[in-house]
Amino acid sequence: MKDFEIAVYGLGVMGSSLAKNLISKGFRTALFGKTQGERERFQSQGDYAVFSTEEDLVKSLKSPKIIFMMVTAGNAVDSVIDGLLPLLDEGDILIEGGNSYFKDSQRRYRFLSEKGIHFLGVGVSGGEKGALTGPSMMVGGSKEAWDSCGHILKRMAAKVGDEYCCSFLGKEGAGHYVKMVHNGIEYAMIQVIADVYSVMRDGLHLSHQEITEIFHRWKDTELSSYLIDITAAVLGKNDVDGQPLVEKILDVAKQKGTGSWTLEEAIARGVYIPTICESVFARYFSADRQLRFDGSQALKATTIPMTMENHEEKLKDALYLAMIVSYAQGIALIKKASDDYGWEIDLPLAVSLWREGCIIRSDLLKDITKALTQSNKNILLSRNFGDLEKNQQALREISAKVVETGVAVPTLMSVISYYDRCRTEKMNVNIVQGLRDCFGAHTYERRDMEGSFHTAWLEGEE
Ligand code: 6PG
Predict the structure, then answer these.
(1) Ligand 1 pocket residue status of 99, Cβ below 6 Å
(2) CATH class of 180-422
(3) Quick one: which of 355, 315, 327 has its CA closest to 193?
(4) Relative to the CA of 253, which ligand 1 atom is closest?
(5) Is the CB of 198 inside a 6 Å radius of any atom of ligand 1?
(6) I need a labelling partner for 31 at 20 to 30 A (CA). Which of 291, 325, 354, 379 fits?
(7) CA 77/CA 347 separation, integer angstroms
(8) Which CATH number is associated with domain 428-462?
(9) Pick the CATH number of 6-172 from 3.90.180.10, 3.40.50.300, 3.40.50.720, 3.20.20.70
(10) Does pTM top 0.85 for this prediction?
């Protein structure tokens, strides 16, 4: 048989979910599983076949052959490509859907282009369930490949009305770049939620029950989002003894690397993303339990107990602003990268792919997409969210009170700093320039005249 439309290579958790998704949409799908266990996930009869050798898999495909690789990101992807390459013909298409580093996708795109093979690097978000029922898919790489197989990828994806949350965003590693930043925003949103939880638990000393009820009520407000939904679910889950499970979870957060890649890129591109930055460092810092234990014994804090009228409303308003700012920072990074790498990413389109299927989906994204369609300014400046007056006021009050109370929520506090920085017409770095020129003759520019200047600042200097 030689007429399968597409192959899925790798039948782990994500691969088998994507394969089931394709099969359910009626695509004739060839599957490759390395292990017996993987292959056994597909026992029943259907319009698909499971292969145990690359040769048989490739032979079963019609031309151009399309292979969707879903293996662990990193060296494994390169090994799979090396194994498949001798079996492929010019014009065939390799799709890679892991959480790959975008620079690996750039490299693979160039390497395969030279061999006449089209490469698509696809950022897939939504976890196992999303992969099965409809993920958000951010596609980068060969436009020719997209034109030929984009219809298949779209059919796999989540939908908003008639629109698929899957699109081609740019050449080379553009798809994986947008997915990386999606994850950076994911880190930020998760950590601002955690910080708000901390204000309730450690500042206001609300009971677990009260906190859970508040998050439940927020599900149907302007905060409406997947992450708020699952926060309510996680808080509401009890252990076998009937006690809240979340309170028994060790306070050390893990990560797989996409958040740190986002930071590295922010530094490389010179884009200020303090909320994403604090959220990544919150995870690193959480690992040092000994320091936190020693510090809790040794470090003095003169604190004032926290009280706050209408705390539920104020925390909601603050969190709303924090979510906008988290998106704003990520979007600013994508914009700069698109300019620097020459990808010409359609920002409203890229952001619209997050409206369904992915981890950072939220009601807010409709307004954000609209804001980006209207203007290419930072979304924080858009009037689509109202004037944010009460939101900034609430976050300002909360930030002042957490400092007084000694509750460490730097990710949440970075939001008000970002907001205030964005409204600071005259920054303080004039003094930085003065000092640099004083100790190193680095020169400075002036407000009142053009040119580059150096001054003899110290007595006795010429
Ligand atoms: C998604 C998620 C997914 C994964 C994160 C977890 O969009 O479906 O982002 O890709 O769950 O990468 O990342 P950490 O393990 O680093 O938190």
Answers:
(1) yes
(2) mainly alpha
(3) 315
(4) 17
(5) no
(6) 354
(7) 28
(8) 1.20.5.320
(9) 3.40.50.720
(10) yes
